[in-house]
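Holo prediction — heme-A.
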Amino acid sequence: MTEAERPVIDAAKLPSITFGYHGTTWWATAAFMVIEGTTLIVLLVSYVYLRRNFVEWPPPPTALPDLLVPTINLALLLFTIVPMALARRAAHSLDLHGVRVFLVSAVLLAAVTVVLRGFEFAALNVRWDSDAYGSSLWMLLGLHTTLLVIDLLESGAIAALMFSKGREPKHFVDVEEAAVYQWFLSISYVPVYVLIFLGPRLL
Amino acid sequence: MRSRLHCAGWAIAAAALGGCEGIQSALDPAGPHAALIARETGYLFAMAGTVFTIVMLALAYALFHRRAGRQPVADGTLARWVGGALAVTVVILLVNLVVDLRTQRALAGIGSDEALSIEVTGHQWWWEVEYVHEQPSRRLRTANEIHIPAGRPVLIELRSADVIHSFWVPKLHGKHDMIPGYTRTIRLQADAPGVFRGECAEFCGHQHANMALYVIAHPVEEFDRWYAQQLLPAPPPADAHAEAGQRVFLSKPCIVCHTIRGTPAGGRAAPDLTHLASRRTLAAGTLPNTREHLAGWVLDPHSAKPGVRMPQNRLSRNELDALLTYLEGLR
Amino acid sequence: MSTDEVLASERRQLDETWSGRPGFIGWLTSVDHKSIGRRYIVTALVFFALAGIDALVMRLQLATPESELLGPDLYNQFFTVHGTTMMFLFAVPIVEALGIYFVPLMIGARNVAYPRLNALGYWVYLIGGVFLWTSFAIGVGPDTGWFSYVPLSGPEFTPGKRADVWAQTVTFTEIAALIAAVEIIVTTFKLRAPGMTLNRLPLFVWSMLVTAFMVLFAMSTVATASIMLALDRLVGMHFFNPAEGGDPLLWQHLFWFFGHPEVYIIFLPATGMISTVLPAFTRRPVFGYTILVFALLTTGFMSFALWVHHMLTTGIPHHGSSFFTAASILIAIPSGIQVFCWIASIWSGRPVFRTPLLFVAGFLFMFVMGGLTGVMVAAIPFDQQVHDTFFVVAHFHYVLVGGSVFPIFAAIYYWFPKLTGRMLSETLGRWHFGLFFAGLNLTFFPMHALGLAGMPRRVYTYRDELGWGDLNLLATIGAIVLALGVVVFAVNVVTSLRRGESAPDDPWGADSLEWATSSPPPAYNFHPVPAVGSRSPMWSAPPDLPQVTGLAFDKMEQLVTSTLDAVPDNRQEMPGPTIWPFVAALAIGVTFITSIFTPWGAVLGAALLLPPLLKWGWPKPKHEVHA
Ligand code: HEA
Ligand code: HEA
Ligand code: CUA
Ligand SMILES: [Cu+2]
């Protein structure tokens, strides 16, 4: 076969925006979720490990953590999944208006969860430096909060991008990534919530 | 005899000197635990030596054999050899596992009719030793030396007062960590009277290198005599000079940390000095227990053991001389 | 125009598009995987030399009983910094560095998947390393050992900043390692040349891929643990404080859950290098591709089930630890498979005795020895005697130096022409090998005997009457021979760079794609982008291989292919040079270092970090994009 007869792959015909696992962005998000998930699991396991050193959990005279604010925040975090899903759908169909509406509402919701998070720390009813029980609770909640704040900033920046002139079609991919990451955060809060707020009642 | 054999085996395998004799060698066991482990060691060396030799011969052949016309070996032949080697590997590994489990079982089965039980607590950087007895008056506290009756198992409880240390007397047994917050129990037994050196094996800070201890096994009657003698309070100063020395001791900060039974000194942060003069070494194997070394130690412990948790002391010549005489009388 | 002229002009155009800025600014802003990879390699080798000189000083201290060269304070810093540097700043970074440089070349890509992140990773690593060594130089080097057991490293027993320096160094380097792992995974999954299905992936890339996955889990664990330690120390948390319900053993579990995979993170890429070097010097593909990949995968999985074998003397219940003994013994099976396959390849091939092959042979000798002592120490009773003694020091230097440094040297001799366009001297290479091999055995073999004779590790001094002096002196002499070997290597590199024989594209007649481009490769790596039809693309290409066309010349475009079968899927525009990764790394550095002194450091850092990250992500105004 001569050079001229060799089949040709014409890259120019290939798309330059792709969603999901076709593109590279999705994989980075997935990898970072693995990293953060591992970190959370390490903390959850440490919590259970340290539990064995105590007769009672929480150790008296520490009071049980309050439930009201944390439960509201859990619900809110889970609810944020909805506008994010809608924003993602809009991004898939390159619908700028839809993305703007849903992304902004999701970001606003996320901002509320961050504010409520401040009250969740107060609801722990223990200081981080009082004993290993306090340290475990603060560390778990602290890590999740850090991720929450980072995510808020990132989603906020992407939302701002949606209103800016420099916006390009490829930034719709970022919207999808923001949505997937938000889901991860919302869902990963479930085990954290269970261990921090229900754990002392059950374990 | 058996240990001699192992030793010879090892020496050939390793073509190395040293390591076999000496008061801290794992290859020269003096008790049933260490002997069992030395046996496993022998097996492991034989296993490793054989496998290593065979694999290296194969490698040398592969590298240097003369190929007739350099015909490549067929992949099928290669696969058969690799598969065969793999099968042999699996068999050897299973044997390893069996040997290991059997050694563990045998270790766990060694004598449980303990003659006595001793609590050993690791401190930065010395060993507190306390003999347990139902009668509080017959409990005995000492430091850096463990005396035991030969031929009888003793139960040892390991604790730590600060960081992690590891209790290791190679001629008697493997090592066991002393972890703050945990208590571990092990058994030791010396087959015959003798002196066995041990050293802290877990890095524990500045003076990890100078944290040794001695286990001394006596014939049973001798041990009983030793015990009875150690239970006595410190002998009263023999003469006026020693008595002056006692006054020095009692008037200096020594009493904050050290105990001398029979005197008001009751500190618990440092080795019990009641029978100091009966010990072989000073400061956990750091110095031989002689008058000069004792003098140097009391004036400036940091020159022999930098970072040690005992302060320097300012003493006049006379004070020091008297103090030494007193301490040397603590038999 | 003839086809050649067309190609030449297209290449000129690509070169213009892909080349970074010139000069120092260009160096700071580069996001090319080759320039990042090169400086990564050089930095890691510098840390190897530093930690090696550190080891020489330790050896001098130990050469004679009751030596007065170093006091305990210095000695403890020396071995901690030696271990920490070798593990965190040399062994792991250098394999990542080689991965960052060669994975894209071996799979026919033009850069890594996230070039800016890649640059950030390097800068963070560099700052971490400089931080550790500066602290060491000014007398606050960490002194609690490379695994910094609590409570010794906790706030009570190590007041001052030394343990914080250790914890933050670890956090820095783990961030860099995680970034490199993400790069390798996504680059390998998405940027392969068309036709390079997973079962045609070069073994080195496979090994880097498995390693990268291990890094994700292992490094996240240790980074979390080191942050917990830092919080215990800085804000009074109690994770490891037994007085308040914390637990020293928790630290050991977390550390070794990382620490054991860590040693295979160091070792697996080295096996990949062996499998890469062998074909060129045995003139045949490595025997047993599939089973070697299987060995990599099982080693990767199993390495997460072995950590307790580092804790066999802590008194964990025996039936539990027997499981770990069994696992430690079983891991010898995949290692055995690899060793047997390599020997089989040599046997059936035609060995070409050049320096890389010498290092491969030396590797087999050293690694089999170290592996066998590994199987020995996996036996619980035996380990109770030799744990924390020089026997274990001997074991791990045989596997680390023999099992990892040897393959790295083999790879450097092999890839040097590609990296620099020059050949290394063969004569000096042989001297290097000879001195290094002899020195190593002289240094580390006697340590087996020392351990059995009762010498614990990490002791700054020992008594004369224990009789350990002779063997220690021998080990020190060995270390000097070893160091001479390293000096010969350094001389070889420096002289060859200046006036070495210049290298053709494919000096060894090797089989993988990096040899398809020029030495050193152009900024865009390949044009045309290669397509692959076999496992040894340089040796056998089916005649009907497709040709890739249509990638832009005036933009930095990269072909993205599907994960399993490498079918062309889409195009991605790659980012050009930018300063922001460097600035962001500086901000991260300030954060970690100030947070040693005050928890507000974290807040300050966040404030500093925000602007560079925003600038980095924010699209540039149009006219700048193609500047
Ligand atoms: C590259 C690094 C590397 C590698 C590859 C290994 C490989 C192995 N290691 Fe090692 N290890 C370390 C680095 C490494 N290790 C380090 C750094 C430490 C100390 C950390 C510290 O405390 O500071 C350590 C410590 C260490 C310990 C703890 C010792 C202690 O602290 O008391 C143990 C215990 O089980 C162990 C076991 C093993 C085993 C079973 C293997 C196996 O994977 C080996 C398998 C290979 C072979 C067996 C050879 C090839 C096989 C054949 C030729 C087939 C035929 C073989 C048989 C029939 C047996 N290692
Ligand atoms: C990859 C890892 C690695 C490597 C390569 C090495 C390499 C070496 N190691 Fe290390 N070592 C460890 C990892 C490693 N080590 C670890 C993890 C520990 C445990 C630490 C702890 O306990 O916490 C340890 C501990 C350790 C100890 C035990 C300390 C103790 O417990 O008290 C000793 C003692 O001999 C030692 C020696 C050496 C020597 C002689 C080398 C030699 O191979 C070094 C060879 C290199 C050189 C000699 C450099 C020569 C360079 C030059 C001369 C400069 C030339 C340059 C130019 C001209 C530009 N090491
Ligand atoms: Cu105590 Cu080391
Ligand atoms: Cu291990």
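READOUT: The two ends of chain A are 73 Å apart (CA to CA).
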